[in-house]
Amino acid sequence: MTAPSAPSWFKSSYSGGSGTECVECARTERGALIRDSKHGIGPVVAVRGQAWGVFMRALRNWTLEG
Questions:
Q1: Count of domains in the chain?
Q2: What pTM was estimated for this model as a whole?
Q3: Residues 43 and 53: beta-carbon distance below 8 Å
Q4: In this structure, is residue 1 part of a structural domain?
Q5: Which of 2, 52, 56, 63 falls between 20 and 30 A from 28, CA-CA?
């Protein structure tokens, strides 16, 4: 059995430019991981794939309506 690879984190394009509102995400086989980029070793929220898809569709709809 091989060890899991380290997540490849990317900063959300919706994060604030001032550096105070930064969210990072990483895709996994089962969904996504979310963390505050200012606290990279802090808590991580794991979201399953189906829930992540629902969340992303809701964000797209919200930004199109706003």
A1: 1
A2: 0.69
A3: no
A4: no
A5: 63
